[in-house]
C-alpha cells in the first residue's frame, strides 16, 4: 500500500509539472484565435501555427543555435585548460581562484549586461553573433571550470606520470590522456552551457538593438506582442524552441549521470587501467 501510494503521488506530481508543456502543445495545434476557448484535446489538429512559426521564426532559431554552439565551443576551450591547471598542477592560490570563480556566479546578470553594453558600443559588437557568444560565455566558462575541476582532480596522478614517463609532454598529456578521460565531464559542461545560452533573454535584450541578430527567446517576446491573436503560432514557436533542449537532455542523460558518479569506478587506483599504466611506468618490458 505504501508503494502504491508513493506511485500515485509521483504520477500526480509529474502530471502537475508537465501540464504546462501539454497545454503548450495542445494550444499549438488549435486554430488561430483565443487559446482559452481551446478544448482539452486537439481532436482536429491544425498545423497552421507551425507554418507561421517556421516562416517567421526560422532566423531566430538559427541565431540561437549558432550562438549556443559557439558559446559551448568557446567555454570548453577556455575552461578545460584552466580546470586542468587548477586540478593537476601545484599552483599557489588555487583556492582563491576557485573562490573568485564562484563569486562571479553570484553577480546579477543585469550588471554584466549593462557593463557589456558600454564595452560593445565602443568595440562595435552590438547586434552580432560574436558579441552574444562572448556575453553568454561569461556564464558558461565559470560553470564549466567548476565542473571540470571537480572531475579532473579525481584523475590519479599515476596515470599522468606514466604518460610523462612514456615521453609525452604536458600538452600531449592534456590532449591524449586528460581530455579523453574527462569526456563525461566535458559533455556535462557542454550540455548546461548550451542550455544557459539557449534560454538566455537578458543578454539578447540588452545587446541587440535591431531584429537582424536575435535569439528565439527575444523573437518569442516580440512575436507575442505583435501577434496576440495568433496564440497557436506563439505556442508553436515555443514548442519548436523547446525541442532542441529536450532532445539534448534525453541524448546526454547517461553521460551527465556518468560524469557525476561513473568516473570514480573506472579511475580508482586499483582499477585495471590504472594498474596497467603503473606496470608500464615501472617495468620497461611491458
From TrEMBL:
Keywords: Cell membrane, Membrane, Transmembrane, Transmembrane helix, Transport. This is Putative integral membrane transport protein. It is found in: Cell membrane. GO terms for biological process: transmembrane transport. Residues 61-252 form the ABC transmembrane type-1 domain. The chain crosses the membrane at residues 61-89, 96-117, 129-152, 173-198, 231-251. GO terms for cellular component: plasma membrane. Belongs to the binding-protein-dependent transport system permease family. It comes from Streptomyces davaonensis (strain DSM 101723 / JCM 4913 / KCC S-0913 / 768). It is a multi-pass membrane protein. It comes from the Bacteria.
